[in-house]
Amino acid sequence: MPPKPLDYESVNENVKKAQYAVRGELYLRASELQKEGKKIIFTNVGNPHALGQKPLTFPRQVVALCQAPFLLDDPNAGLLFPSDAIARAKHYLSLTSGGLGAYSDSRGLPGIRKEVAEFIYRRDGYPSDPELIYLTDGASKGVMQILNTIIGGPEDGILVPVPQYPLYSATIALLGGSLVPYYLEETEHWGLDITELRRSVAQARSQGINVKAMVIINPGNPTGQCLSEANVIDILRFCYEENLVLLGDEVYQQNIYQDERPFISAKKVLMDLGQPLSKEVQLISFHTVSKGYWGECGQRGGYFEMTNIPPETVDEIYKIASIALSPNVSAQIFMGLMVNPPKPGDISYDQYFRESQGILQSLRRRARIMTDGFNSCKNVVCNFTEGAMYSFPQIKLPQRAIEAAKQAGKVPDVFYCLKLLEATGISTVPGSGFGQKEGVFHLRTTILPVEEDIPAIMGSFKKFNDEFMEQYKDQRGYSRI
Ligand code: DCS
Fold it and tell me: Domain named Aminotransferase class I/classII large: which ranges (predicted)?
Protein backbone atom coordinates (compact mmCIF):
# COMPACT_ATOMS: atom_id res chain seq x y z
CA MET A 1 0.00 0.00 0.00
CA PRO A 2 1.41 3.45 -0.85
CA PRO A 3 1.46 5.94 2.03
CA LYS A 4 -1.74 7.93 2.45
CA PRO A 5 -1.49 11.65 1.62
CA LEU A 6 -1.28 12.70 5.24
CA ASP A 7 0.91 9.87 6.49
CA TYR A 8 4.08 11.40 7.88
CA GLU A 9 6.29 10.43 4.91
CA SER A 10 3.91 12.21 2.52
CA VAL A 11 3.82 15.51 4.42
CA ASN A 12 5.23 18.56 2.60
CA GLU A 13 8.98 18.50 3.31
CA ASN A 14 8.96 22.28 3.87
CA VAL A 15 6.50 21.83 6.72
CA LYS A 16 8.83 19.28 8.33
CA LYS A 17 11.81 21.60 7.88
CA ALA A 18 10.14 24.63 9.50
CA GLN A 19 11.09 25.03 13.16
CA TYR A 20 9.65 27.39 15.76
CA ALA A 21 11.54 27.17 19.04
CA VAL A 22 9.44 29.70 20.96
CA ARG A 23 6.86 26.94 21.29
CA GLY A 24 9.31 24.05 20.83
CA GLU A 25 10.71 21.24 23.01
CA LEU A 26 11.16 23.41 26.09
CA TYR A 27 7.64 24.76 25.93
CA LEU A 28 6.17 21.29 25.46
CA ARG A 29 8.09 19.93 28.46
CA ALA A 30 6.99 22.94 30.53
CA SER A 31 3.36 22.28 29.61
CA GLU A 32 3.75 18.63 30.66
CA LEU A 33 5.27 19.62 34.00
CA GLN A 34 2.45 22.10 34.53
CA LYS A 35 -0.11 19.34 33.99
CA GLU A 36 1.73 17.30 36.62
CA GLY A 37 1.14 20.17 39.04
CA LYS A 38 4.53 21.94 38.95
CA LYS A 39 4.47 25.74 39.08
CA ILE A 40 5.85 27.00 35.77
CA ILE A 41 7.01 30.54 35.05
CA PHE A 42 6.41 30.93 31.32
CA THR A 43 9.10 33.35 30.21
CA ASN A 44 9.36 31.75 26.78
CA VAL A 45 6.79 33.89 24.97
CA GLY A 46 6.45 37.68 24.87
CA ASN A 47 2.83 37.42 26.01
CA PRO A 48 2.40 40.17 28.64
CA HIS A 49 -1.20 39.52 29.70
CA ALA A 50 -0.45 35.84 30.29
CA LEU A 51 2.03 36.99 32.94
CA GLY A 52 -0.40 39.29 34.68
CA GLN A 53 -0.23 42.60 32.77
CA LYS A 54 -3.62 44.29 32.99
CA PRO A 55 -5.25 45.52 29.78
CA LEU A 56 -5.50 49.27 29.28
CA THR A 57 -9.01 50.34 30.26
CA PHE A 58 -10.02 52.68 27.42
CA PRO A 59 -9.53 50.32 24.45
CA ARG A 60 -11.35 47.52 26.24
CA GLN A 61 -14.28 49.84 26.97
CA VAL A 62 -14.51 50.87 23.33
CA VAL A 63 -14.24 47.32 21.98
CA ALA A 64 -16.73 46.02 24.59
CA LEU A 65 -19.26 48.55 23.29
CA CYS A 66 -18.51 47.62 19.69
CA GLN A 67 -19.00 43.93 20.53
CA ALA A 68 -22.28 44.62 22.34
CA PRO A 69 -23.73 47.61 20.47
CA PHE A 70 -27.11 47.22 22.24
CA LEU A 71 -25.34 48.61 25.33
CA LEU A 72 -25.14 51.92 23.50
CA ASP A 73 -28.95 52.13 23.68
CA ASP A 74 -29.05 51.23 27.37
CA PRO A 75 -29.93 54.25 29.52
CA ASN A 76 -27.27 53.14 32.02
CA ALA A 77 -24.46 53.10 29.43
CA GLY A 78 -23.35 56.57 30.53
CA LEU A 79 -22.91 55.31 34.11
CA LEU A 80 -20.67 52.43 33.08
CA PHE A 81 -18.69 53.95 30.21
CA PRO A 82 -17.06 57.38 29.84
CA SER A 83 -18.51 59.53 27.10
CA ASP A 84 -15.33 59.48 24.99
CA ALA A 85 -15.40 55.66 24.93
CA ILE A 86 -19.05 55.76 23.85
CA ALA A 87 -18.27 58.30 21.14
CA ARG A 88 -15.33 56.27 19.90
CA ALA A 89 -17.35 53.05 19.79
CA LYS A 90 -19.98 54.82 17.67
CA HIS A 91 -17.21 56.14 15.42
CA TYR A 92 -15.77 52.66 14.80
CA LEU A 93 -19.17 51.07 14.30
CA SER A 94 -19.93 53.73 11.70
CA LEU A 95 -16.80 52.66 9.79
CA THR A 96 -18.00 49.05 9.48
CA SER A 97 -20.74 47.75 7.28
CA GLY A 98 -22.57 45.57 9.77
CA GLY A 99 -20.50 45.83 12.94
CA LEU A 100 -17.90 43.38 14.22
CA GLY A 101 -19.68 40.37 12.79
CA ALA A 102 -19.17 41.43 9.19
CA TYR A 103 -16.09 40.91 7.00
CA SER A 104 -14.29 44.14 6.22
CA ASP A 105 -12.35 45.02 3.08
CA SER A 106 -9.44 42.53 2.85
CA ARG A 107 -6.98 45.37 3.41
CA GLY A 108 -8.79 46.49 6.55
CA LEU A 109 -11.35 49.22 7.20
CA PRO A 110 -10.45 52.37 5.21
CA GLY A 111 -11.20 54.62 8.22
CA ILE A 112 -8.71 52.75 10.39
CA ARG A 113 -6.06 52.64 7.69
CA LYS A 114 -6.45 56.42 7.60
CA GLU A 115 -5.88 56.60 11.38
CA VAL A 116 -2.73 54.52 10.95
CA ALA A 117 -1.49 56.83 8.18
CA GLU A 118 -2.08 59.86 10.43
CA PHE A 119 -0.13 58.17 13.24
CA ILE A 120 2.80 57.50 10.90
CA TYR A 121 2.71 61.13 9.76
CA ARG A 122 2.77 62.38 13.37
CA ARG A 123 5.57 59.93 14.25
CA ASP A 124 7.84 60.54 11.24
CA GLY A 125 6.89 63.96 9.94
CA TYR A 126 6.29 62.56 6.45
CA PRO A 127 2.93 61.84 4.85
CA SER A 128 1.74 58.27 4.66
CA ASP A 129 -0.82 56.95 2.18
CA PRO A 130 -3.67 54.85 3.68
CA GLU A 131 -3.86 52.97 0.34
CA LEU A 132 -0.41 51.58 1.10
CA ILE A 133 -1.30 50.40 4.61
CA TYR A 134 -2.82 46.95 5.05
CA LEU A 135 -4.26 45.75 8.36
CA THR A 136 -3.38 42.17 9.31
CA ASP A 137 -4.06 39.55 11.98
CA GLY A 138 -0.98 40.38 14.06
CA ALA A 139 2.30 41.37 12.44
CA SER A 140 2.98 37.66 11.78
CA LYS A 141 0.41 37.38 9.02
CA GLY A 142 1.79 40.49 7.35
CA VAL A 143 5.34 39.14 7.43
CA MET A 144 4.12 35.86 5.95
CA GLN A 145 2.17 37.62 3.17
CA ILE A 146 5.16 39.72 2.20
CA LEU A 147 7.65 36.84 2.27
CA ASN A 148 5.20 34.89 0.14
CA THR A 149 5.16 37.74 -2.36
CA ILE A 150 8.98 37.73 -2.53
CA ILE A 151 9.91 34.04 -2.43
CA GLY A 152 9.34 31.93 -5.53
CA GLY A 153 11.85 29.14 -4.94
CA PRO A 154 15.13 28.06 -3.31
CA GLU A 155 17.16 30.56 -5.37
CA ASP A 156 15.39 33.49 -3.65
CA GLY A 157 17.39 34.62 -0.61
CA ILE A 158 16.35 36.69 2.40
CA LEU A 159 19.00 38.28 4.63
CA VAL A 160 18.02 37.59 8.22
CA PRO A 161 19.87 38.61 11.39
CA VAL A 162 21.33 35.88 13.58
CA PRO A 163 20.13 35.65 16.29
CA GLN A 164 16.63 36.22 14.84
CA TYR A 165 12.99 35.74 15.76
CA PRO A 166 12.12 32.33 14.20
CA LEU A 167 8.99 33.60 12.42
CA TYR A 168 11.49 34.50 9.68
CA SER A 169 13.43 31.23 9.48
CA ALA A 170 10.23 29.17 9.77
CA THR A 171 8.35 31.10 7.07
CA ILE A 172 11.31 31.08 4.68
CA ALA A 173 11.58 27.30 5.18
CA LEU A 174 7.83 26.87 4.68
CA LEU A 175 7.93 28.83 1.43
CA GLY A 176 11.00 26.94 0.21
CA GLY A 177 13.27 30.03 0.04
CA SER A 178 16.85 30.46 1.26
CA LEU A 179 17.76 32.14 4.53
CA VAL A 180 20.93 34.18 4.17
CA PRO A 181 22.26 34.82 7.69
CA TYR A 182 24.12 37.91 8.84
CA TYR A 183 25.59 37.81 12.32
CA LEU A 184 24.99 40.49 14.92
CA GLU A 185 28.01 41.33 17.06
CA GLU A 186 27.41 40.46 20.70
CA THR A 187 30.47 42.30 22.00
CA GLU A 188 29.18 45.46 20.26
CA HIS A 189 25.77 45.35 21.97
CA TRP A 190 24.41 43.20 19.16
CA GLY A 191 25.28 45.87 16.62
CA LEU A 192 25.01 45.35 12.89
CA ASP A 193 28.20 45.59 10.88
CA ILE A 194 27.96 46.46 7.18
CA THR A 195 31.17 44.52 6.39
CA GLU A 196 29.45 41.42 7.74
CA LEU A 197 26.41 42.15 5.54
CA ARG A 198 28.61 42.47 2.47
CA ARG A 199 30.38 39.20 3.30
CA SER A 200 27.08 37.43 3.71
CA VAL A 201 25.58 38.70 0.44
CA ALA A 202 28.77 37.91 -1.52
CA GLN A 203 28.84 34.39 -0.15
CA ALA A 204 25.16 33.77 -0.96
CA ARG A 205 25.56 35.15 -4.49
CA SER A 206 28.59 32.94 -5.09
CA GLN A 207 26.27 30.01 -4.34
CA GLY A 208 23.81 31.18 -6.99
CA ILE A 209 21.31 32.71 -4.57
CA ASN A 210 19.42 35.80 -5.71
CA VAL A 211 19.41 37.88 -2.51
CA LYS A 212 16.19 39.91 -2.67
CA ALA A 213 15.33 41.20 0.80
CA MET A 214 16.86 42.14 4.11
CA VAL A 215 15.11 41.83 7.47
CA ILE A 216 15.87 44.09 10.42
CA ILE A 217 14.22 43.71 13.81
CA ASN A 218 14.38 47.04 15.63
CA PRO A 219 14.31 46.92 18.65
CA GLY A 220 15.75 43.44 18.45
CA ASN A 221 14.23 40.10 19.33
CA PRO A 222 15.84 38.19 21.03
CA THR A 223 18.79 40.56 21.34
CA GLY A 224 17.12 43.71 22.72
CA GLN A 225 19.30 46.29 20.94
CA CYS A 226 18.00 49.58 19.49
CA LEU A 227 19.53 50.56 16.18
CA SER A 228 21.15 53.98 16.00
CA GLU A 229 20.11 56.38 13.25
CA ALA A 230 23.59 56.05 11.72
CA ASN A 231 23.14 52.29 11.57
CA VAL A 232 19.74 52.56 9.85
CA ILE A 233 21.27 54.99 7.31
CA ASP A 234 23.99 52.44 6.52
CA ILE A 235 21.38 49.71 6.15
CA LEU A 236 19.27 51.76 3.73
CA ARG A 237 22.33 52.70 1.66
CA PHE A 238 23.29 49.05 1.59
CA CYS A 239 19.79 48.07 0.39
CA TYR A 240 19.99 50.75 -2.31
CA GLU A 241 23.41 49.59 -3.54
CA GLU A 242 22.49 45.91 -3.43
CA ASN A 243 18.93 46.32 -4.74
CA LEU A 244 17.21 44.78 -1.72
CA VAL A 245 13.74 45.40 -0.31
CA LEU A 246 14.04 46.21 3.40
CA LEU A 247 11.59 44.47 5.75
CA GLY A 248 11.53 46.61 8.90
CA ASP A 249 10.07 44.67 11.80
CA GLU A 250 9.29 47.47 14.22
CA VAL A 251 6.81 45.72 16.49
CA TYR A 252 8.70 46.79 19.64
CA GLN A 253 8.82 50.49 18.83
CA GLN A 254 7.07 51.44 22.10
CA ASN A 255 9.37 49.20 24.20
CA ILE A 256 12.39 51.46 24.75
CA TYR A 257 14.30 51.37 28.07
CA GLN A 258 17.11 53.90 27.58
CA ASP A 259 17.32 57.49 26.35
CA GLU A 260 20.49 57.42 24.22
CA ARG A 261 18.87 55.71 21.25
CA PRO A 262 15.17 56.51 20.96
CA PHE A 263 13.25 54.51 18.35
CA ILE A 264 13.57 55.90 14.85
CA SER A 265 11.61 54.26 12.07
CA ALA A 266 13.25 53.04 8.88
CA LYS A 267 10.60 55.04 6.97
CA LYS A 268 11.66 58.31 8.60
CA VAL A 269 15.35 57.67 8.03
CA LEU A 270 14.64 56.78 4.40
CA MET A 271 12.66 59.99 3.85
CA ASP A 272 15.35 62.05 5.65
CA LEU A 273 17.94 60.69 3.20
CA GLY A 274 16.11 62.37 0.29
CA GLN A 275 16.44 61.44 -3.34
CA PRO A 276 17.39 59.18 -4.95
CA LEU A 277 17.03 56.77 -1.99
CA SER A 278 13.70 58.11 -0.69
CA LYS A 279 12.11 57.35 -4.06
CA GLU A 280 14.01 54.18 -4.85
CA VAL A 281 14.47 51.95 -1.81
CA GLN A 282 11.58 49.57 -1.33
CA LEU A 283 10.52 49.23 2.29
CA ILE A 284 7.82 47.33 4.14
CA SER A 285 7.36 48.25 7.82
CA PHE A 286 5.45 46.08 10.32
CA HIS A 287 3.67 46.94 13.55
CA THR A 288 1.32 45.21 16.00
CA VAL A 289 -0.99 45.63 19.01
CA SER A 290 0.70 42.64 20.69
CA LYS A 291 3.68 44.53 22.14
CA GLY A 292 4.42 47.88 23.73
CA TYR A 293 2.29 48.75 26.76
CA TRP A 294 -0.74 47.33 24.94
CA GLY A 295 0.43 43.72 24.96
CA GLU A 296 -2.86 42.66 23.35
CA CYS A 297 -1.36 39.50 21.79
CA GLY A 298 -4.62 37.57 21.79
CA GLN A 299 -6.46 40.22 19.79
CA ARG A 300 -4.23 39.63 16.74
CA GLY A 301 -4.02 43.14 15.34
CA GLY A 302 -1.24 44.38 13.04
CA TYR A 303 -0.45 46.42 9.96
CA PHE A 304 2.22 46.86 7.33
CA GLU A 305 3.07 49.98 5.37
CA MET A 306 4.51 49.78 1.86
CA THR A 307 6.93 52.42 0.60
CA ASN A 308 8.10 52.64 -3.03
CA ILE A 309 6.18 49.52 -4.02
CA PRO A 310 4.70 49.75 -7.54
CA PRO A 311 0.87 49.75 -7.81
CA GLU A 312 0.78 46.46 -9.76
CA THR A 313 2.57 44.72 -6.87
CA VAL A 314 0.28 46.39 -4.33
CA ASP A 315 -2.65 44.94 -6.30
CA GLU A 316 -1.14 41.46 -6.19
CA ILE A 317 -0.70 41.78 -2.42
CA TYR A 318 -4.35 42.90 -2.20
CA LYS A 319 -5.42 39.87 -4.22
CA ILE A 320 -3.56 37.52 -1.88
CA ALA A 321 -5.04 39.29 1.18
CA SER A 322 -8.49 38.79 -0.40
CA ILE A 323 -8.07 35.02 -0.34
CA ALA A 324 -8.27 35.23 3.46
CA LEU A 325 -11.30 37.56 3.08
CA SER A 326 -10.78 39.91 6.00
CA PRO A 327 -8.51 40.59 8.95
CA ASN A 328 -10.20 40.38 12.39
CA VAL A 329 -12.43 43.40 12.70
CA SER A 330 -12.17 43.81 16.48
CA ALA A 331 -8.38 43.64 16.11
CA GLN A 332 -8.56 46.44 13.55
CA ILE A 333 -10.36 48.55 16.15
CA PHE A 334 -7.58 47.83 18.66
CA MET A 335 -5.12 49.03 16.05
CA GLY A 336 -7.16 52.19 15.48
CA LEU A 337 -7.14 52.82 19.23
CA MET A 338 -3.43 52.15 19.57
CA VAL A 339 -2.49 54.63 16.86
CA ASN A 340 -5.09 57.15 18.03
CA PRO A 341 -5.29 56.90 21.84
CA PRO A 342 -7.00 59.43 24.14
CA LYS A 343 -5.46 62.89 23.90
CA PRO A 344 -4.75 65.45 26.64
CA GLY A 345 -8.09 67.02 27.58
CA ASP A 346 -10.12 63.86 26.80
CA ILE A 347 -12.02 62.40 29.76
CA SER A 348 -10.09 59.13 29.58
CA TYR A 349 -6.67 60.67 28.98
CA ASP A 350 -5.38 60.75 32.58
CA GLN A 351 -6.23 57.13 33.21
CA TYR A 352 -4.78 56.06 29.86
CA PHE A 353 -1.57 57.98 30.54
CA ARG A 354 -1.23 56.61 34.08
CA GLU A 355 -1.78 53.02 32.99
CA SER A 356 0.49 53.09 29.93
CA GLN A 357 3.34 54.92 31.65
CA GLY A 358 3.03 52.63 34.67
CA ILE A 359 3.62 49.59 32.45
CA LEU A 360 6.45 51.20 30.49
CA GLN A 361 8.31 52.43 33.57
CA SER A 362 8.00 49.06 35.22
CA LEU A 363 9.35 47.31 32.09
CA ARG A 364 12.28 49.71 32.18
CA ARG A 365 13.08 48.72 35.77
CA ARG A 366 12.59 45.03 34.99
CA ALA A 367 15.02 45.25 32.04
CA ARG A 368 17.66 46.58 34.43
CA ILE A 369 17.02 44.09 37.26
CA MET A 370 17.18 41.12 34.88
CA THR A 371 20.36 42.21 33.12
CA ASP A 372 22.08 42.88 36.44
CA GLY A 373 20.79 39.56 37.79
CA PHE A 374 22.24 37.58 34.87
CA ASN A 375 25.55 39.41 35.05
CA SER A 376 25.90 38.42 38.71
CA CYS A 377 25.87 34.71 37.79
CA LYS A 378 28.88 32.48 37.16
CA ASN A 379 29.80 32.13 33.47
CA VAL A 380 26.92 34.32 32.33
CA VAL A 381 27.29 37.61 30.43
CA CYS A 382 24.36 39.67 29.28
CA ASN A 383 23.94 42.85 27.25
CA PHE A 384 21.48 45.38 28.64
CA THR A 385 17.96 45.11 27.21
CA GLU A 386 17.77 48.49 25.47
CA GLY A 387 14.37 47.71 23.99
CA ALA A 388 11.84 44.93 23.17
CA MET A 389 10.90 42.39 25.88
CA TYR A 390 13.76 39.95 26.24
CA SER A 391 16.99 39.22 27.99
CA PHE A 392 19.45 37.12 25.98
CA PRO A 393 22.34 36.14 28.25
CA GLN A 394 25.29 34.14 26.97
CA ILE A 395 25.89 31.00 29.01
CA LYS A 396 29.52 29.91 28.93
CA LEU A 397 29.07 26.18 29.27
CA PRO A 398 32.02 24.16 30.58
CA GLN A 399 33.32 21.38 28.29
CA ARG A 400 32.01 18.74 30.69
CA ALA A 401 28.49 20.12 30.40
CA ILE A 402 28.78 20.05 26.61
CA GLU A 403 29.84 16.41 26.77
CA ALA A 404 27.03 15.53 29.16
CA ALA A 405 24.57 17.17 26.73
CA LYS A 406 25.97 15.10 23.85
CA GLN A 407 25.53 11.93 25.87
CA ALA A 408 21.94 12.89 26.59
CA GLY A 409 21.42 13.49 22.84
CA LYS A 410 20.70 17.20 23.38
CA VAL A 411 22.06 20.42 21.96
CA PRO A 412 24.09 21.94 24.85
CA ASP A 413 21.85 24.96 25.45
CA VAL A 414 18.72 22.81 25.25
CA PHE A 415 20.29 20.57 27.89
CA TYR A 416 20.97 23.57 30.13
CA CYS A 417 17.49 25.05 29.67
CA LEU A 418 15.78 21.71 30.35
CA LYS A 419 17.74 21.35 33.59
CA LEU A 420 16.81 24.93 34.51
CA LEU A 421 13.15 24.15 33.85
CA GLU A 422 13.16 20.95 35.91
CA ALA A 423 14.98 22.61 38.82
CA THR A 424 13.16 25.95 38.98
CA GLY A 425 10.05 25.88 36.76
CA ILE A 426 11.50 28.73 34.69
CA SER A 427 10.58 28.07 31.06
CA THR A 428 13.00 29.75 28.62
CA VAL A 429 14.00 29.29 24.98
CA PRO A 430 17.51 28.00 24.17
CA GLY A 431 19.64 30.33 22.03
CA SER A 432 19.89 27.65 19.32
CA GLY A 433 16.22 28.38 18.53
CA PHE A 434 17.21 31.86 17.32
CA GLY A 435 20.60 30.98 15.81
CA GLN A 436 23.96 31.89 17.35
CA LYS A 437 27.63 31.63 16.42
CA GLU A 438 29.12 28.14 16.44
CA GLY A 439 30.18 27.02 19.93
CA VAL A 440 28.44 29.91 21.75
CA PHE A 441 25.34 29.35 23.87
CA HIS A 442 22.49 31.53 25.10
CA LEU A 443 19.01 31.44 26.47
CA ARG A 444 16.15 33.88 26.05
CA THR A 445 13.77 34.95 28.79
CA THR A 446 11.15 37.64 28.60
CA ILE A 447 11.38 40.50 31.10
CA LEU A 448 7.62 40.18 31.64
CA PRO A 449 7.05 38.47 35.00
CA VAL A 450 5.43 40.89 37.47
CA GLU A 451 8.05 43.21 38.88
CA GLU A 452 7.68 42.03 42.50
CA ASP A 453 8.37 38.41 41.44
CA ILE A 454 11.55 39.11 39.49
CA PRO A 455 14.06 39.19 42.39
CA ALA A 456 12.89 35.73 43.50
CA ILE A 457 13.00 34.40 39.92
CA MET A 458 16.51 35.73 39.42
CA GLY A 459 17.48 34.32 42.82
CA SER A 460 16.37 30.83 41.85
CA PHE A 461 18.04 31.20 38.43
CA LYS A 462 21.32 32.16 40.09
CA LYS A 463 21.16 29.28 42.55
CA PHE A 464 20.51 26.79 39.72
CA ASN A 465 23.16 28.26 37.42
CA ASP A 466 25.91 28.47 39.98
CA GLU A 467 25.28 24.89 41.12
CA PHE A 468 25.22 23.73 37.48
CA MET A 469 28.54 25.43 36.80
CA GLU A 470 30.01 23.88 39.94
CA GLN A 471 28.74 20.42 39.00
CA TYR A 472 30.19 20.54 35.47
CA LYS A 473 33.22 22.70 36.05
CA ASP A 474 36.35 21.81 34.10
CA GLN A 475 39.45 20.72 35.94
CA ARG A 476 41.09 24.06 35.24
CA GLY A 477 38.17 26.34 36.03
CA TYR A 478 34.59 27.10 35.13
CA SER A 479 34.75 27.93 31.50
CA ARG A 480 36.35 26.37 28.46
CA ILE A 481 36.69 29.82 26.89
N1 DCS B 1 7.97 40.25 14.95
C2 DCS B 1 8.71 40.05 16.05
C3 DCS B 1 10.11 40.52 16.10
C4 DCS B 1 8.13 39.41 17.15
O5 DCS B 1 8.87 39.23 18.23
C6 DCS B 1 6.79 38.97 17.08
C7 DCS B 1 6.16 38.21 18.21
C8 DCS B 1 6.08 39.22 15.91
C9 DCS B 1 6.70 39.86 14.86
C10 DCS B 1 4.66 38.82 15.71
O11 DCS B 1 3.79 39.31 16.62
P12 DCS B 1 2.21 39.36 16.37
O13 DCS B 1 1.89 38.43 15.26
O14 DCS B 1 1.59 38.98 17.66
O15 DCS B 1 1.92 40.76 15.99
N16 DCS B 1 7.05 37.69 19.16
C17 DCS B 1 6.91 36.36 19.71
C18 DCS B 1 8.00 36.05 20.63
O19 DCS B 1 9.19 36.00 20.36
N20 DCS B 1 7.51 35.82 21.80
O21 DCS B 1 6.16 36.04 21.81
C22 DCS B 1 5.68 36.16 20.50
Answer: 83-447
